[in-house]
Give the backbone structure.
Amino acid sequence: GADAVNGQGGFGGAGGFNGAGDFGDIFGDIFGDFFGGGSRGFGGFGGAQKRGPRRGADIRQHIGITFEEAVFGKKVSLKVNRSEECDECHGTGKIPEKACSTCHGTGLEKETVTRKVRIPSGVETGQRLVVRDGGNAGGNNGIFGDLYIFITVKKHDIFRRDGFDIHCEVPVKMTTAILGGEVEVPTLEGKTKIKIPEGTKSGTIFRLSDKGIKKTSSDRR
């Protein structure tokens, strides 16, 4: 209340608000600390603040690969259109106080870079790979954003994926199914032969070990 401001209330004395001048100084210190202005009272709100380093924006890029490339992995070269720091104004956007004519005040220029990326074995449609610092440059010497690569695996004519297994339907002659014999079946490494026991029914499943997809945490397929 008024007594406190006049130094006559419970807040007066050595530990309290000793007059209106002290009251203003306290708030000046608080807001000055918040806005980086020091003990300048409410004047800390005034003036333009210098913009600090800004992180660059991330880039999304989609890539299509074949069924075989998804199974065995592949090294690919991607052309990425991104922004880099302007050489003229060094990312500030000004030279020294007017807008940079090279980057038009953005502090960034466009460039096309080639990135070599390893597609790991076993990837599936919808999976995402991250290339750290592969995105756009940041302003005012800020760090680069990241490059996100989204995978789409093309369908295969005869193979179908089920987890880390590969399924394939193979026609068998009726005489071979009744009497037994051998049939040639396709694999990702080429054709091989399997034995068909006599009396095999349609829909019977045969398994070829180590012919599927390699798990990332194991050497086995």
